[in-house]
Design goal:
alpha+beta, 4 strands, peroxidase, GPX_AS, oxidoreductase
Length: 225
């Protein structure tokens, strides 16, 4: 069989593209508007920021009582006041008994008869341990512990809806390491005759352990009117 001899393929000439004018790149037009600032991950929107009303002193506050009516703190002028956030289904709930005993004991003294008050603020923010209505809470305190000191309306002590009184108390007397947040039920604030926060105690502090501080506050001079 006769083999065909193939001739080499002619080399294909290279063609270079004609040199063209360099392309012009157009810079993006700069906006005259200022760049938007991204929201801070821990800062609430301005509409969510809760202002502390116009109250700047303890006696300026008017939290709501058990009937939803303002409880005017001006009636506490010159008194020593123990403020406690309470709950009816908490491991510390038995402190109601200690608070009532403390209340009666101090009230039995000459200085405490007209110069001392305890205010309870029911709060459902800690594991939902005070779910009842204001009326149910009042009945619970009276029937189970014979509470005779004022227990006001249910309130928030932390967060955007916190009672302004508590925002003020936390600011005036931060807790351990400067932490302002209320950690649990039955934290206690003592306000002196001068309207200033004299002490703050954790839930674990028993009411009877506060007697010495309360008597010392009663012996101090009050605010000059």
């Amino acid at each position: 069989m006769k083999l065909l001899r193939l001739s080499p393929i002619a080399s294909i000439p290279r063609y270079s593209l004609p040199r063209s004018t360099p392309l012009l790149t157009v810079a993006p037009r700069r906006s005259t508007q200022p760049a938007a600032t991204p929201p801070h991950p821990h800062r609430p929107a301005s509409s969510a920021i809760r202002t502390m009303a116009s109250a700047t002193k303890f006696y300026d506050f008017k939290p709501l009582d058990k009937k939803g009516e303002p409880y005017d703190f001006s009636q506490l002028q010159g008194k020593v006041v123990l403020v406690v956030n309470t709950a009816s289904k908490c491991g510390f709930t038995p402190q109601f008994e200690g608070l009532e005993k403390l209340y009666k004991k101090v009230k039995a003294t000459e200085a405490g008869a007209t110069g001392f008050e305890i205010l309870g603020f029911p709060c459902n923010q800690f594991n939902g341990q005070d779910p009842g209505t204001n009326d149910e809470i009042q009945d619970f305190c009276l029937v189970n512990y014979g509470v005779s000191f004022p227990v006001l309306g249910k309130t928030d002590v932390n967060g955007d809806k916190a009672e302004p009184l508590y925002e003020w108390l936390k600011s005036e007397k931060p807790g351990l390491l400067g932490m302002k947040r209320i950690k649990w039920n039955f934290e206690k604030f003592l306000v002196g005759r001068d309207g200033k926060v004299a002490g703050r105690w954790a839930s674990t502090s028993k009411p009877e352990g506060l007697e010495k501080d309360i008597l010392a506050a009663l012996a101090a001079k009050g605010e000059k009117l």
